[in-house]
Amino acid sequence: MRRGHLFIVSGPSGAGKGTLVKAVLGRVPDLWVSISATTRAPRPGEHEGIHYFFLTAEEFAKRVAAGEFLEHAEVHGNRYGTLRGPVERRMRAGMDVILEIDPQGAGQVKSAMPGSVLMFVKTPTWDELRRRLEGRGSETPEQVETRLRTAETELALEGMYEHVIMNDDVSRAADELAAVIRSHAEE
Hints:
Blueprint: E1 6-10, H1 17-25, E2 31-33, E3 36-38, E4 53-54, H2 57-65, E5 69-75, E6 78-83, H3 84-92, E7 96-100, H4 103-112, E8 117-122, H5 126-136, H6 141-155, E9 163-166, H7 170-185
Parallel strand pairs: 1-7, 1-8, 2-7, 3-4, 8-9
Antiparallel strand pairs: 3-6, 5-6
Helix pairs in contact: 1-7, 5-6
C-alpha cells in the first residue's frame, strides 16, 4: 500500500493559509487536514475537535513530556502543536496529510520527517499583510503588532521552503497549492 505524503503549509499570520487549505480541499480528493492543539482560547465560531483541540497549559505540557507531539511551539504567548498519532495513522493508511502550522513548527516537522514537503504562503506586500490582520478583527491592536513583529522573522525563513505560494488571488493560489500536492502525490 502507498504511504501518504505530508504537506506543510506555513507562513505569517494573516497570509491566508487557512483560506487556501480550505480551498484546496475542494480540488484534491482524499486530503486530510490535521487539527492542531493549542492553549489559546477559542475564537468566535471555533469548536473543539473541528478547528483545534483546546488544551490547558498543564494538559499540553503533559502531552509534550509524553512525546505525543510531532511539533510544538509557543507563538504569541500560546502553545500550539501537532499530535503525532493521527498524522502517522493516516499516512500509513495511504492518505496524504496537510498541516497548517507556523514556520517554527514547520522546521521541527521537516527535521522529524525529512520527506515532508514545505510550502510557504505569503502576501504580495507588507501593507497587505497588515490590512488582513487588522481586517480580521479577532485581535487587539497590540496583538496585531505582535503578529507583525513575528511575521518579520517568519518572512526571513522563506528560503527553507521548497515551494512559495503568493496569495494575491485565492483561486489562483489554491490552484498552485493543489498542483504542488498533486505533483508529489503522483510520485
